[in-house]
Specification:
It contains 13 helices and seven strands. By secondary structure, it is of the alpha+beta class. The protein folds into two domains: 157 residues, no CATH class; 180 residues, Histidine kinase-like ATPase, C-terminal domain (Heat Shock Protein 90, 2-Layer Sandwich). Helix 3 packs across helix 5 and helix 8 crosses helix 10.
Length: 352
């Protein structure tokens, strides 16, 4: 838990800055693509006799400015994380203008008329580049800030949802578990003690910080404790099969991503069926992706229609996975003939 808390604190400090990490290779690639598009626009807007030659020189200059600006923002990120976003925006804007001006001056001295064009004056060249740089930098920083505000809003909404999810302990589960523990105190004191410990751990998780991340091993332990509690109530009607030996246990994940899925599997699949059923949990790390599959039997059609859920927990988990890992994570649902299958997946790489 301490490792997860320390990692979450480090991430929260990084997330407080509206600028993305310009040291990331994906961001650098995006900068290169956008800069090349800008070079095309500048060449098309001009009237050069040899547009391909002009495009090569313009691309070289624009890429030089863009990558230098990205490098400056990358190197200055430790400083920018220590100030407010308003100050960070102002500092970033000035750094971009200064970088563009210095490179324009250097390009003028090195390129001469090849880059600036015949008859182009020094001051005119610098002023034109400064004006373009000022407009584009303002637009880019504004776009990044709007994206940051949107992400903050989505994260706040996701945290509110998970807090509601943590507070949602079905009353029938609580009361039936207490009744089962009371019955076990006379017939099997050791198992009753284990059940009390499992319930205490479940409540501890439900009262923990909503944004806390835990290891996959800890999340699996919570899932196992929940199923042990349900087995006290359902007895032999609930069978559980685990196939999770291939999962990397130290991977950090958002808390409470498995227990709600297992709760749905028991509540909507096993409990309505008079004969009960088997819940199968399997997981593997294949390539760059970790996947965990939960399969439970489908209840009879008449009972299923009466007990159909609103899938709020599923949407909450999907949203939290995407906020934590981006588009590389998600939740997939499959309805088969005699069972229902829920698969959650997320990247295998460790968090930065």
């Amino acid at each position: 838990m301490q490792a997860g808390s320390a990692n979450s604190e480090s991430e929260s400090q990084q997330d407080s800055l509206f600028l993305p990490g310009f040291c990331d290779i994906r961001i650098v690639f995006a900068v290169v693509v956008i800069a090349e598009l800008l070079a095309f626009v500048l060449v098309l807007a001009g009237s050069a006799r040899d547009p391909w030659s002009r495009l090569g020189l313009t691309s070289l200059f624009v890429q030089w400015v863009a990558l230098s600006g990205a490098a400056v923002l990358c190197l200055s990120r430790p400083l920018l994380t220590r100030v407010s976003n308003t100050a960070a925006a102002a500092i970033s804007y000035l750094l971009l203008l200064l970088t563009g001006t210095l490179i324009s001056e250097l390009a003028y001295r090195l390129g001469g008329t090849l880059l600036t064009g015949v008859g182009s004056e020094h001051a005119s060249f610098l002023f034109r580049n400064l004006l373009i740089n000022a407009i584009l930098s303002a637009l880019v920083l504004r776009y990044l800030y709007v994206q940051f505000q949107w992400r903050q809003k989505m994260q706040a909404e996701a945290q509110a949802r998970v807090e509601a999810l943590q507070a949602r302990i079905r009353p029938h589960f609580l009361f039936n578990s207490l009744n089962s523990i009371a019955a076990l105190t006379r017939s099997n004191a050791e198992r009753a003690e284990q059940a009390v410990q499992d319930m205490a751990d479940l409540f501890r998780v439900s009262l923990s910080e909503a944004s806390e991340r835990v290891t996959l091993e800890q999340e699996l332990e919570v899932a196992q404790r929940y199923l042990r509690m349900e087995s006290l109530r359902l007895g032999e009607r609930l069978q559980v099969e685990w196939d999770i030996e291939r999962l990397p246990r130290k991977r950090l994940v958002p808390s409470l991503i498995l227990q709600p899925l297992l709760e749905n599997a028991v509540y909507h699949g096993v409990e309505p069926s008079p004969a009960g059923g088997t819940v199968r949990i399997s997981g593997a790390a294949e390539g760059r992706r970790i996947s965990i599959c939960i399969r439970n039997p489908r209840a009879e059609k008449g009972v299923e229609a009466h007990r159909r859920g609103n899938r709020i927990a599923l949407e909450n988990i999907r949203l939290r996975l995407q906020l934590a890992f981006g588009n590389r994570a998600g939740l997939a649902l499959h309805e088969l003939d005699d069972c229902f299958e829920t698969t959650l997946y997320f990247p295998r790489e460790k968090m930065q």
